[in-house]
Amino acid sequence: MIGFLVPSYVKYFGWQSLNVQKTTRRMLKTGSPDLKSISILASVPVAWSTYNVAVRLLYSIDHPPPAPLINLGNYLVSLATFQIAFLVQFALRKFSSSGQSSEVESSAEHESTISYYYAGFELGLYLFLGSTIQLEALKLTTASKAAFIVQTTSVLVPTIEAILGRFPFKRILPSVILASIGIILFSVDDPKSLGALDFSRLNLGDALALFAAVFYSLHVIRLGTLSTKLRKTFDLARAKTISQLCIASIYTTLTLTSTGGVGEYLANVTFNDLQASALILIWLGVVTTAFPQWAQTRGQMSIPPSVASILYSTQPVWSSITAFVVLSEQFPLKDIVAGVAIISASLLAI
User: Fold this and answer.
1) In this structure, what are the phi and psi dihedrals at residue 65, rounded to the nearest 5 degrees?
2) Which domain holds residue 302?
3) What is the pLDDT of residues 121-141, one digit of tens each?
4) Has UniProt tagged this entry with the keyword Transmembrane (predicted)?
5) Is residue 23 part of a domain?
């Protein structure tokens, strides 16, 4: 059975390097992008922008949970959100329909569920590897350099797409240049220090950050293909979350049992610490994880990965706005210029 399903999955969801995606062809021919999908994708970096602020608030607690537990709790809340949404959808369908279904439809749904979990495992693995490698990179390099290197997804995605023959790189080149300028300005404290970003002098931390960007780019590209094949947005997003939770559970168990981090945390944590942590983890799981999982899957059903990556590059803009509202951080002039460049790149891309 497995020997049949795996080759079928590879054949059905292959990279198709010699063909342009149907969504890309349709968008290029009509010249009129799906505004609803663009709006949904544009909301993703807004949700992501609250992640750093929420984590900073979490780390300001007297006894914050260890990082692996934060990730695990995040994915647990995310999956719980999808399960609640699923139960609500199921109840509404039962209420609004007679509930009759044929055995053929039931069989087809079962077969498609297997494909969703295969796809969810692949996408979830990319995201888990990217986030885990990024955390390791932050131990060895500065946050600003890591942020810039990870955001090179806005360049990597259209470049890989162009190599695969899926998208004309020259069409999106001006947007890539503008987005890159904006990301660089956001990522350095002093524009005069741009020489420090010389890729020929990458240290281990910088190299890991670039490696993380590759996995994030693979997620965006593969999601563009899989979301056009598997049209049940909710099911694909939930399968991806289940994959992340399973992988994170194994990783957390191996990491914390070897270091004794759980025992130390439980010995010092107070009820107030747990209460504050729970509230923040709910926000992380619902707003920064579950919603983007669904929104990315829904939006990339009709928007090419190259355009989506430019929209995602607006995250530093929204992060600065969120930090200003919640943490009262100020906008330096370079951030304003960077924000204008990134927003212009997104408008030009669509």
Assistant:
1) -70, 155
2) 33-93+108-349
3) 999 999 888 888 887 776 676
4) yes
5) no
